[in-house]
Structures are given as C-alpha cells and as structure tokens.
Amino acid sequence: MVSFDYERPVTLKEAMLAASREGAHPLAGGTDLLVKVRRETVSPKLLVDLKHIPELHGITQDEPTFIGATTTLNQIADSPTVLERFPVLAKAAHSVGSRQVRNRATIGGNVANASPAADTVPALMVLDAQVVLAGPGGDTTVPVCSFFTGPGKTVMRHGEIIRGFLIPEVKGTFSFDKVSRRNAVDLATASVVVFGFVEGGDVHLRMAAGAVAPTPLRLFDAERVFDEGGPDALVEVLDAADAAISPIDDIRGTAAFRRKVVRVLLRRGIQTVLSSLGGDA
Amino acid sequence: MRVIGRPVVRLDALDKVTGAAKYVGDMKFPGVLHAAILRSNCSHGRIKRIDIKDALAFPGVHAVVTGEKYPKPTGLYLKDRTLFAVDKVRYYGEPVAGVVAETPELAREAARLIRVEYEKLPPVYDPLSALADDAPLLHENLGDYEWAPVFFPKPGTNISNHFKLRKGDVEQGFAESDLIHEETYYVPHIYHSPLETHVAVGYADGGGRLTVWSSCQSPFAVRKFLSTALDMPLSKIRVITGYVGGGFGGKAGATIEGLVAPLALAVPGRHVKLVYTREEDFVGAYVRQGLVARLKTGVGKDGRLRAQKCELFWDAGAYTEYGANIVRAAGYTSAGPYDIPNLWTDSYCVYTNHPSGGPMRGFGMPELHWALELQMDTLADKLGMDPVEFRLLNCLKDGGVTATGEVVHGVGLTECIKTVAERIGWGKKKEGVEKGIAIMCKAPAMPTNASSSACLKFNEDGSVTLMTSAAEIGQGAMTALAQIAAEELSLPIEAVSVSCPDTAITPYEWQTVASRITFSAGNAVVLAAQDAKRQIFQNASYILGDHEMELVDGQVRVKGRPELSVPLESVVMGAFLPDGSAKGGPVFGRGTFTPEGLINLDPETGQSPRPVAFWTFGAQGAEVSADPETGKITVHRLVAAFDVGRVINPVTLEGQVEGGLVQGLGSALFEEMVFGEDGQVLNNNYVDYKIPTSMDVPAIETYFVEVAQQDGPWGARGVGELPMVPTAPAIACALKRVTGTLQRKLPLVRHGRD
Amino acid sequence: MEHVIHLTVNGTQVSGRVRSDRRLVDFLREDLELTGTKEGCGEGECGACTIIMNGMAVNSCLVLAVEADGSEILTVEGLARGGELDPLQEEFAERGAVQCGYCTPGMLMSAKALLSKHPSPTEEQVREAIAGNLCRCTGYKKIVEAILAAGGSGRA
Asked: Which of A131, A257, B219, B510 is deepest in the core (most CB within 10 A)?
C-alpha cells in the first residue's frame, strides 16, 4: 500500500480545492478505492473524504429526485423513496457486494469507479439519470449514459466531484437480472435492466446491460427496433442488442456465454415488463 | 456412557466466541521483526543471478536470505525441495529470497529491490504433455533425491512416483464383460481457503536453539523437515501450535515454517513474523493437485462389475514431496468402495510448472471418486439399471475384497446407501428437480508406523490435564479427546483440560491429518487413561488394600464393595497413610498407539492383505435443478450418511460433516485455480476464487451409521475428510438427469469456459 | 501525515495517533490490542474483520483508522456486558456454530448488527446478513440456527 495523506473537508468548496491538488483522489465508501490502493493499481497522494459534506448526502423528495453521491447503497436499497419511485435502483444497489460493503459503498463511488460490471449503472441508465458534477467552473450535468469512456474511465476531469444524481419521474415497470457465479457477493458476469412504460398508447422500452462491453451500455438501438417493431420484433431487438455489445473472455465467463445470456436475460426482462404492462411479447 | 456420544460444548467455544482466543497471528512478541518473501515471476527458469545489495541497504532491513545458504533438499516422503529456490525455479510464486525488516511494509518494499535474473526454460503445464519424451524436465537430479521405499520415482522423466496395482486378470475380466465403458475425467487445482492464512513466527536464541510458532497441523513433521533442511538436531528445534484458523490439509506437512526459520536464524535474538497475504496463500503452501483420469470399466449383463483399467495422471506441480503419497493413496483405492475382481491401475505423480500439489481434505479421494462415480452412474444408465441398485449390488460388504486384496469386515456402506436413498426420496418424482447419488470410501494414507501418544497429568484436586500433539484445527479434536479421557476416567468433562501442541512438551503425534486423530490419538488417550487408572488403583490400594478396583463418579471403589472407597482427589498425588507416611506418587498416565500389523503394498501388484488402519464408507445424495438457458445450477438438498463407527460428539460431528459437504459443494460448483499462460494464478483472491456463502448452501441432512471399528476408541473411526468426497459427483449425477449431458470436468459452473 | 483520532470502542473513549494509510483493523488489533477482530483477505470479501461502526456492520480492513475518528465502534470483545455473554455468543457456543473460530468474531458482529435492527429475523434475513462472512468449516447451518435462536428468544 502506497502512503497517502487524508483530508476530511466539510464543505463542497473545501473538497473541490483539495480534490484539485496533484495526486488527489476523492474517497467515498472506499470499498473499491482502498482495494485498488492495496493492489497498487491506484496510487493517490491524497484522499479527500467526501462523507462529511452534508449536501453530498441523502435523497430528496423533489422532482427530479436527487440522490447525493455519498448515499450508501444500503441507504438506497432501504429508502422508501427509492423503493417507491425507482424500485429497480433499490434492487440493483442491493445486489452489490455484502451487507458490510453496502454499508460503506456509495452510489457516487459505484459510478465513479466505472467498472463495466457496476450493478447500479444499468439501472441509472434506464432511468435516464444525470450525473451532477461539481467543478471549478460550477455544476455541470452529464447523462449517466454518456458518462463512461472505458473500463475505469469517465468524462470526469481531475478536480471534479460527483455531487449526486438527478432522476426524473418515471411511470412504468422494471426488471433487473444478473448472472453471476455465486448467489451472493459476486460480480456480474452479465446483467440486464429493462424498463417499460406506456406513452401515447404505445409501449416503449429502455434497456441496459452490464459486464458485456468496456462500459455499462444503454441499448439505444435495440430500443429503437422495439419502438418500430413492437413485441413482434423481439428477435430483431435481441439482434440489435447483440450488435451493440462487445463482451470479452475473462475469468468470470466467455464472450460467447455473455452474448448468449444477454439475449436470455433481455428476452425474459422484456417479457416480464410487457406482461406486467398488460401486453405480451 | 456419561460423556461419549453426548453433545458436549466444545472446550474452545467460549474462548473463541469472546474473541479472546489467541491465534499465532494474534500473539505478541517483544521487538518482533517482520518478514516478506520475494517470489519468482517465472514458472520455469534457471537463476542466473540474485542481487540483494539494494535490499540489504534499505533502511530498516536486518537480513536477506536466499537459497544458496540452505541447499539441502527436504520433504515429507520424497526430498525434492529446498526452503528457497536453489539454481532453478519451477513455478510462478516460488520463494526466491526472504527479507527481515522492522515493519511488514519495509520488508515488502525491500523485497522488491532484489533483482533476480532468470534464464527462461520451457514450461509444462499439464501432466500428459509432461510425460512426452521431449517434455522439459523439472528435476534433472530426481535420481539423487532420497525417498521412502514405498515410492517409485522414474529418474530422467517427470514422474516422481509411479504406483502400480495389478489384481486378477483384467483382460479376462473385460472379455467376460457384456458392456465396457471408457471415459476421461478432469479435476482442476483447487485451494484450501482457510479463513486464517498461513502464519508463523521464528526465534533463534543465542545458544543455537530455534523455536517456531506456527498455525499448522503437523508440528512434529515441521520439526523433522526443518531439521533436515537446516542441518540441526531435532532437540534444538521446538515447534509450538496454538489454535489453527482452518487447515483442510493446507497446513499439514511443512510450508511457511521453512521460510520463517532460516530468516529467524539470520537474526538471532529477535522474533521474526511472517503472515501470508491472501494472494500469497494461494501459492505459498500446497494446492490440491489436478487430475486427468482415464477409466475403462467392464460390467456383466447381471450388473456386476468385472474389470477396471484405471490411469490417473496427477498434475502434481513443481514439488511432490507430499503429493507423491496422494498418488499412491488414490492408486490403492482405485476400485473405490466397489468389489471389482480384476483391476489394472497406473497412478502417475507428474511434475509440472504449477504450484506444489499437496494434501487437501480427502487426500486424492474427491478427485478419484469424481471419475469413479461418474463412470459408475454412466454404467448403470447404459445397463438400464437404477443407479442406487447398481451401487447396492456392487459395493463393498462384509467379506468383500478391496483393490489391494484386503477382505473387509464391519462395513456399514449398504446401510448408508439405503439411508440416503430413503431420506432423499429416491425414485419419487419432484417437478423440475432431479436426484443423484454417489458413494465413497477412504482410509488414512499414512506410513504404517504413524503413531500417536498422550499424557494425562493429574492435578491435586482430581482434575486432569490431557497433553497430546493433536492440532485443534476446528475439527473439535480437543473436545473429542477430552471426552474420551473423561469417559475412561469417569470424570465430568469440566475436569479435563487439553493443551495445544508443543514439540518440547507435549508427546509425539505424527500429524493431524487423514481423519485419524479421533481414531489414533483417541486410542492413545484411552491407553493413557488406563495407565493412569492403574496408578490410581495402586495408590488407593495402599489405603484400601489389594483388591480389584473401579473408578466411579470421582470415587475409587473396591469392586462389589462400594462402601470401601476413597475420593479420587485423595489418591492422585499418591497415598497418605494414617501414620503420616506417603506412598506412591502423582499420577501421570501415558499411552501410545501405533496401528499394528499394517503391511506394505507389493511394489509390482499393489496388493496387501492389510495396507491401512481402517476404511470409512459413506453415501450422499443431491437434489439439483438448472436453468436450461443460463445454465444456472441450483442445489436444493444434500443428504449424507457415513459409517463413523461410533459417534463421540453428535454436534461437532454434524458440524464437521456439514462443513465438508459445503466445501464439496464449492468444489463442485465454482472452485478452480485458473492459471495464465505464464503459469500465474489469475484468481488468487476472493473476488475471483469463490467459495460458498450462506446464500449458496442448500438444505443439509446428515445421518450416521454406527458399525463399530473393533480397534477404534469406543468403536470410532475417522470421518473428517469424507463429506468432501462424494459431493461433487452426487451433484453432477443429478445435473446429468436435469440436462441430459454428463459434465466430466469440474467445476460445474463454467460460464462458457471449456 | 499523522492524525489524532478520538473514538469510542466498546464503550470506552480512546485516542490514538495514526498515519493516513493506517487501516482500522490494524489500529484495533495492534494499537488497541483487540485481536478478536481478524483479517482474512484485506479486500472486504471475507468478512473476518467485520465490526460494528455507528450501528452498522462494516469491514474494518476497508475503513481507514482516520475515517473512524468520532465514531462508535463495537468489536467482538465488547459483545459480553458485565461478564454476561451476549445471547449470540451463548448460542454460537451451545449449538456448535464455532469450529476453527477464525470467522466467528466477524460472523457474530454481522449477526449482532442484524439483531439490533431485526430482533426476530427470518432465516432468509439471517442468510443475507451473513453472506459477506465466509466460513470454510461449518457449512453455515449451525451458524444460521444459532442466530435464529438468539433472535427468536427475543433476548438479543
């Protein structure tokens, strides 16, 4: 473990100042970051602890809903607001790690870590969530769908801090499914989220997948195919998803397996969502 | 029975639930220094140069040790390894140098400053390739090594042991068979994964004496190993073992101790502590070796097994000092729990550039039974016979004959199979769920003279201290042995305390392995208690006169005349007569046990009428379903029955069997060490080496059959390793009925991997 | 950089000087000599180092000591009160939920955090609560039974 300094700002202003220093790295729950520090894949000079900044924490009742970056995954999984408005996010948050990990791990950290397999990200993607970034030039917002640029990489610049996430109101129904080796405390070999809603009398879908590309992916093409072809175009929807993903062989599974299960999970998700919306696939 | 068979609370339970229990890593040593090990990043290479200059000059560093100082090969059965690599490295992760420094961080940093230059040699990673004529040789000097005479290395090849078994006429047997099935089965390397990684502390005093505190299963084997490698007499080496935070075989033999000892000798007067990181633990001791098993089995239309040809190719890794015996054990057990008249077995211990294979719970039996039980299930299918009926027909029964020609008696296997079949509802349909069964046998694989000993020291108040060198590795040895002592001495369990192993104080024990402690150390405790009783009666006779006596509820009584008695505590320090004179003395019982009459296997035929101390038999059933599209496997139930001879403690026994089943479940579903092209373990962490969690565990039922082991303590025989053995094949046999295909490679959850 | 930290551990106020990179597990085990808390992996995967921090179970290998400044910590050593064992400790001992004992402290702390929130949990809740605590010896069955017994009795 490489030696580093630690600061605990209590205002966002102090935090941004500290985070802009050379070698500074924001610290939220630390459940990913401290593992990376231990493995020396990250060697920060300064950790800026964001957990004591009140405005980065908590879930508001506003529209859009704001979830502070340092809200822990267990707080999200147990939040009456999230359970009522975005049950899929509660479910996704719950599927991360163990209870101990979720008591520390934060939504901001899970996103900033930019793992292709991050469980909360496909959920945030179908919710059309926006990342609120605090930076030297003030706040900016970036859709979660365009936040990631590669494994461990995002559009965030040094000195920026994730304030939280804005999630617009949605009415519809969700499905979250994940294939992993073990029943608990395991990374996704592949995960899929499907959100279905009715607009103008038509059913629309939003879909996203994890662990099947360098970043979690919103499956826009597949959504368009569904919009055009409806439930009858299921095979084409799955083909479009298949064309969008670029899975790799790794220790958790092969690319071929991932392609196969993404189709299965998507098909099941679509069918679940459609049947609860009263249609069928 | 007042104590035997009762759910006595573990002697170590309160110490452990309060967090007070001190494991080796928790012990405090004044002025302790810390060690770090530099491991090779090359799986096969000649060491051209090691430059330790920068490491030695690094602030806080006290010593750096490399292999050249200790070139003497050592090992348990075959002396094929050194403490640190000498001249060559043979696996990725092999210790090349050790650093002693003020803190663990400084030691690790300094270790990185050691520069090693390798001349790379071609590696070989699978046993079949390693047997090819042009395969790179791992041990060019194999012929110069020392080995026990029951092993058969082939110098000039990568074979460190070729075990042969020839029984009956196998070709004739095939000729008489109506159906012959040939198949190959695969078992990957797996990792023991004790929650406590290996940890040891060494201390060399000013007088050339060495003390090692180690979380280990085999303090005496460690002492012997170090004595050879360090060229020190046994009397100058002391090994102390406290609670062990899980062993499962990985802490048997000697591993980390061989690193900490030379480092301690380099800084006399200072304690040196070495704690493996989890990553290091994957390659720093033993792993369970891989196996490729080819079976050809013939059966008659009547369903009776006629003949079997068995070739076992063990991926035994870089050093096989311990693994050579696994190959032998699997060889002489190659008929499994079946009575097969004609057998031909070749079991090869093959060097590869993988980490060292070694003992793991089951000692070759889980790997062997993976192949055997899938083969038997396939034969039953091909015959159109019910798999349970097939096993009942062919399994060993009283008077049956094992692979080595031994006639067995007191076999409770049939009852185990029937119990499992009944409890799992064999033959009853359940929507979406299928059942599978597997059976097994195992004997302790140990030298024919592997001994145990026990001392019972009475205290002034009539309580007693039991001293053995059986390690408390979680299995409950401490409690079971205390129960045996309490029963024999008619004492309440609270009156017995048990000490942990210390080779300078506690008496000899071969090793805490092979499911042999309850049997072997238990017998020694019985004998020690009988010896103590003789002394107690002698002391009492000075007061009560010469009579036949008995010990009941803390009273020494003349048999048949209970009014003639003295309290036990009044005679444990000797007898004090009315005139004030003393006779006799403090009671100190001793007992030693060596299973007598074990006969080595014939080197050509592998036959022996009694090669092992005992056999334990058992059966398991599994209920499994699977998602046809994602392949997700769900194990719903595991039902097990083992013939343990006699239950000493039902709670610790159940717990041990439940844990073994779940370890077996892990090996069935997820566990596999995955190696990169350079021979590096890619999943040397809990992120990617998955063992079962509380959410992965099915409903578990355990049943015990008690056909007494005639020479066991109260009829008990060993069971610790057994539940690990039939779990994977039982699950695979059930899965075959779900999916219609038999998966012959472990683990079953593959996510698309070949 | 060094920091002075003040926290409450098992009901007692303690202070210490720690470097930024000192982990809470090391502070507890080495500085406070509370070695009941174990380390099994250093990556939050095994749960052996589980403690209760401000009422929640956390892996003390993934918390910096300096992050724990101002917090209230309960370790296995603080479970028994006034010489009385916690019902969880009694049930673990009685029901054979302990074997090698290395996972036991962390397991007890996860169970304690659960029972503090849900005094009478279901089996599913118990299994979920300890999913982050690996045990290689017991197969979990007796651990689950012990936690249910400690909870079901309403004593915890």
From this structure: B219
Q: B123: which 2 tokens?
A: 């590696």
Dump pLDDT digits (tens) for B321-366: 999 999 999 999 999 999 999 999 999 999 999 999 999 999 999 9
Which pLDDT tens digit goes with each residue over B156-202?
999 999 999 999 999 999 999 999 999 999 999 999 999 999 999 99
Q: Rounded distance, CA B362 to CA C100, Å?
A: 18
Q: B464 forms bridges with which residues in the sheet?
A: B458, B496
Burial of B636 (0-12, 13-18, 19+ CB in 10 A): middle
Q: In the complex, which subunits touch C with 3 or more CB pairs below 8 angstroms?
A: A, B
Strands B305-317 vs B342-351: parallel, antiparallel or unpaired: parallel
What b-and-e string marks burial along A125-151, b requiring 16 or more CB atoms within 10 Å of the CB? bbbbbbbbbbbeeeeeebebbebbeee
C-alpha span between B621 and B633 (Å, rounded): 16
CB A64 within 8 A of CB A84: no
The answer to whether residues B510 and B708 touch, using CB atoms and an 8 Å cutoff, is no
d(CA B537, CA B556): 7
Which residues, listed in sequence order, are joined to residue B50 by a DSSP beta bridge?
A: B116
- The CA distance from A234 to A267, in Å, is 7
Q: Are B313 and B291 in contact (CB under 8 A)?
A: yes
Strand order in the sheet with C2-9: C12-19, C2-9, C72-74, C50-53, C56-59
What is the radius of gyration, based on Cα positions, of chain C? 15
User: CB of A106 within 8 A of CB of A69?
Assistant: yes
Cα separation, C97 vs B658, in Å, equals: 11
Pair type for strands B699-705 and B633-643: parallel
Contact B68, B86 (CB under 8 A): yes
Considering only CB atoms, which chain A residues are within 8 Å of C1?
A: 5-6
Q: Chain B: residue nearest A267 by CA?
A: B629
Contact predicate C59/A104, CB 8 Å: yes
**Continuous segment of H or E residues that includes residue B624:** strand B616-626
Structure tokens of B36?
A: 């770090």
Question: What integer pLDDT is reported at residue C91 of this predicted model?
Answer: 98
**Residue C54 contacts A where some CB pair is shorter than 8 Å:** no
Residue C84, chain A, CB below 8 Å: the answer is: no
